[in-house]
Amino acid sequence: MAKRSAAEPILEVNALVKKFPVYGSFGKLFGAKAYVNAVREASFRLYEGETYGLVGESGSGKSTTGRAVLGLTPPSSGEVLYRGQDLVKLSKRELRKFRNEIQFVFQDPLSSLNPRKRIGDILEEPLIIHKIGDRQKRQEQVFRILEVVGLQPEHYFRYPHEFSGGQRQRIGLARALIVNPKIMICDEPVSALDVSIQSQILNMLRELQTELGLTMLFITHDMSVVRYISDRIGIMYLGTIVEEALTDDLFEAPRHPYTKALLSAVPDYTRSRLKERIILKGEIPSPLSPPTGCVFHTRCPLATDRCRVEAPAVREVREDHRVACHYA
């Protein structure tokens, strides 16, 4: 159950849009000839102490949404309200003040770690940037955070290539945690890891969330992972959040046809017979030319003429359960 300890959300995303320009043979000389609609009017809220899972297929825009929230990819329009402050309207200098409160954990830790620096220097760098402590205190904090994420003191002196994938992901988590953030945005942090290592990282995240009072936006394509880690889940398709609900409600009573198709693909080992698999026809439309009306109507088994011309409004079908579908 979502732990809403405050009346107001700690982070609120309203009508977030991100478009990437596509240029012709002459580059930027004659301007963009088209736009990739990566995120389209995405809206959701994070409440203090909860984990919000953002799920979708590859290319659905979930990672772009996470980057846009933090400003790593500046949004084209929309609002990102952190404790009432719109981060979209801030300059780079003003936004830097919030960097230590909202941290990002990347999918591939090796590509985000400087191969020429020792782990101790990598972890100390955020403290230097945010002017936290003197050299001795920073080193003490690095050794402490290594212990928190399950690494040894001698790892301080090693380089990124000397670690396994699971250990590198722990280093990525340590780098995010060392500045004591309020919110962590985790972009598929376990997708490249073995199942046994995945469980270790997920268990560690849940323990750290309880101990440190973290709020997390957890981005993934794995329904089993998001069910374990999340309090609430948002289902994203072609840059649009089509359904949002508490985790148990979503898995027990999905309302959107796309959500039902996703859940039908999850293996269920607790039943004696296989559940019915829903096979979607066709391919995901190109974000260069998204369909009119409902974004899912080209693959939806329930689609009608209304779906082709009229985009469904997000409506609440029960408490804390919202869906964008005419026939949900």
TrEMBL record:
GO MF term set: ATP binding
Pfam annotation, one family: ABC_tran
Source species: Cohnella cellulosilytica
Protein name (Swiss-Prot/TrEMBL): ABC transporter ATP-binding protein
Domain ABC transporter: 11-263
PROSITE patterns, alphabetized: ABC_TRANSPORTER_1, ABC_TRANSPORTER_2
Protein keywords: ATP-binding, Nucleotide-binding, Transport
InterPro entries to which the protein is assigned, alphabetical: AAA+_ATPase (IPR003593), ABC_transp_ATP-bind (IPR050319), ABC_transporter-like_ATP-bd (IPR003439), ABC_transporter-like_CS (IPR017871), Oligopep_ABC_C (IPR013563), P-loop_NTPase (IPR027417)
Superkingdom: Bacteria
Similarity remark: Belongs to the ABC transporter superfamily.
